Amino acid sequence: MMQRMLEQVTDFVDFTRGTDLNEYLRQTYSNNRSCKNNLSDVRVSPDGRHIHVILRKPKVGLMTFDKYQRPQQIQSQKHLDLGMTRAVPIVDIVYFDDKNRDGGVALLAVIFENGKAEFWKFLELKGGWHPLHAADLCNSPRAKVISVSASQNYIVWCEERPPSESSLLVNETHNFRYCICKRTYEVEEMAVSLGGMKIALHNNPRYNVISSGENVYLLPDLKDKSTMSLSKFFLMWSPRYDTFRVSSTCKGNLLRKDSPSTKEYDFRRLITDCTGYLSALSPPDIYGYSPTGSGGLLLLLSTGWVSLLQKDGVLRQIYKLADNCLASSSAHNSLNVYQDTLALTIGRTLYLIDTTCGVELEKIALKREGINPAALLVEAVFEEACKYYQQRSLSSTRLTVEKLKRGGMFQAPITLANILPQGGGRRGPEKLLGSLEAELKGLVSLEEVKGGLVKEREVEDVCESLVQQEVGRLLLSSELDRDSLLYLNSIFSLFPGQAWRATQSALQLRCNGEGSLSSKVPPEVWKTVLSPVQAPTVTANLPPAANSALPVFELLCHSVFCFQPSWLPRFLELAQQQQTSAGLGMGLGLENGESLPLYKRALSALPLPGPGSDLKQYPDYEQNQDLEVDLLLVSGRPNAVLQALRILMGRRQWERVTQVAQRFCRQSPLLNKEIFTTLLCEVAQHRDLDPYLDLLWALCPEDLTVTAILNIVLKNIPSSSLSTSFSPSSNIPPSSPFADPQSSQLTFGLLKPLLSKVLQRETRPNQRYADILQSPSFPPPTPPRQAKGLPRSTTEPSIGLDQQHNDIISNMAAIFDQHDPSKHRTVHGGRVTSTPNPD
């Protein structure tokens, strides 16, 4: 694959006031905390020839930087900047698509916080920017613009309106005092004509307005802490059709509503239909976003996934960052898409990703910007302080430079950092630098010597290349002997990170958008990976560690668990697929002379506690147990599925229990019976599964009888429940046939639907004799004569199905008598009566 490299396009010297732009960017990248510059305030025109910087603090303003197509023009006359005509904070810059544009014409609008809009045009032949006219976006003079954007021929914005007197009287919350508005616009030769204003959404929270194609996305403002409860969802709006869609970062579109007859929406009514569903969601946070231009929206989520919300509302996962990649650099990320390539910047690393298949094309380390020595010294102070405090800390939590800067526990490095870059009183810094001059020179000399002796980066590159070659060679070999396996184990032990990356390259592991792994290597490679577990042979001249080398599959599972634990179940699934397609045998391992399934080999990578172990020594026990459940379920083996089911029941995750049961009961009747019997035993012991009984009864196997069900229930009912219901010390029957709602005792009412279903199935006529019974050639015999009198239904107990009901109740009474010999019960017409047992 061709390696991609970054090429410098411009150093801004070809822009007007390019040195000022360079200085602004230099201060933005510096570590000076007093600097208020922010890259989110930089705007670039679609043609890349105009850059505008919005100044917010301490003084509002606007900086313009322009690139001329004819550089000699700017030399012959004075350049005209886009000037400020009012001391009002600027919300944003809106660039317009001028259809009449030729050569050097650009058109934009400066939107102010008070709702005013100024329109400017760039005329290269006349030396720069010229004002056209001003207009009011908002109808209300008290309105305040929060966010603005342009979508096709619409200007859309979110504005804040002061609360009315009626809302103050009812003490209405101020979080919903915003509205979404729009105006049409038309670009003319020397003006921009605006249409009438329309409010599209009332009483909504504070939203950022993001345009993408014909869609506008309304994202919650993360800076507004009062609306954090509304961050579970966001809106997608079509200004042309006035269609709103409610979306989330985990499900995509949840609800769509077309324009009502009143042509206006109320936010609360819009989300009423999905409020209950939204309350059950726990979507990840949005760390970054970028419009695609074709109607979609790219999202960088807190889970590490880069997802694409398509214009049809489907949420598609594209790329997964390594675990904890966003932990230390979540504040320094950006993403943009260029055709089918996504450029994602995390800290000082640039990722190039193919959005069509989610493949990482390149990962490039960005160069550090040049900063002054004082900033370098401040950064060195925090890094050394971080190492010092970490070595002496009793906590296992990793201390980072960012936490040290934000926290107030350690004041020494913060105080020293405030002294060093000061430019006012020079005696303190000069004295400090003078005392440190000798030490600093010594450190610089030492670094030069180290750089001359060992070029660390080159060594790392050579090491990376050698490990990749060796791991690839060993995995591609037809068969590994014991010495080669020991050698492979030593590589993974000494160079774990390089070995993990080499494994991904050798096996061509790729994670697609659906969350599964793929590999395009030939079956011979997987034959080596899934090679059987050889019986351990002890060699006298080797140390104990050498005699306990891990097989290849176990070695790779440990590496996956170490660097990408979420991939472990997917890796097992991929291995099972390769094992089946290549016909490599069932387990390719031995356990007491028998085949060892792959899932048991994968489970060996998890540091799970043994029986009686102290769980405090396993801080990641719950996460590891989640992986254990996933591995067991991925295997699909009956014993593994039942083991996973028992783990979930032990953790009382009943919803997941029912999901697993519904999924695997379809595999085979035997597994269906085992799962149902296990769950029925659980139902007899407590009432936690009551909300899921209808789902469980639907899983009842065809061959399970009423007698078998009752035997299972009675064997698993806690003894306290039987002694409470049939106390031998009392001759008075229970006052009610129903248990206390707060009791954990199983009642007959809960079992009634199941018993009725099974009983009806048992009494169903056999289909083999249905044709004979319904044949017209064998008429039924004449019914016997009966004596006149009352009908049998009023004088005798019901027969057929009722008789079987009586038999069941009699059997149950007999069973309960075994637990309570002090009473004698008889059955009369389907009822159980109790009399004292005469001695």
TrEMBL record:
Parts forming coiled coils: none
Domain BLOC-2 complex member HPS6 N-terminal: 4-372
Annotated InterPro entries: BLOC-2_complex_Hps6_subunit (IPR017218), HPS6_C (IPR046822), HPS6_N (IPR046823)
Listed GO biological process terms: lysosome localization; protein localization to membrane
GO CC terms in record: BLOC-2 complex; lysosomal membrane
Ranges for region Disordered: 769-801, 817-839
Residue stretches of biased makeup (Polar residues): 792-801
Residue ranges annotated for the BLOC-2 complex member HPS6 C-terminal domain, each copy included: 379-785
Protein name: HPS6 biosis of lysosomal organelles complex 2 subunit 3
High-level lineage: Eukaryota, Metazoa, Chordata, Craniata, Vertebrata
